[in-house]
Amino acid sequence: MAATYNFSIDQGTTVSIQWAYRTAANAVIDLTSYTARLQARPTVSSSVTVMDCTTANGQLVVTGATGVVTLSLTATQSAALDFNSAVYDLEIVSPAGVVTRLVQGTVTLSREVTR
Q1: Which helix (H) or strand (E) holds 75?
Q2: Is the pTM of the predicted complex or chain greater than 0.85?
């Protein structure tokens, strides 16, 4: 079962949020050769995607041996976000194609005033 983690993004800033994948005994799970994907939508059933981050587009970085997945957005990328609150989930994909939902929750955008 996926963990629940709610977070906020400060629009117009450089974003770096990390999730560590561990066993119940807190041992590192090696994610070498894994990919990751994260989508956020206004509601679970919405067809509108307000964030679409992947390892392929460089917005998610998987650090294999440490079991860490990092959401990484430039200030320009976070400035382009346009939502108030959304639901998201983060999935990892093994080299064999096995998909695991690592974390899920709500992401809130703290709107930028200074531009």
Answers
A1: helix 75-79
A2: yes
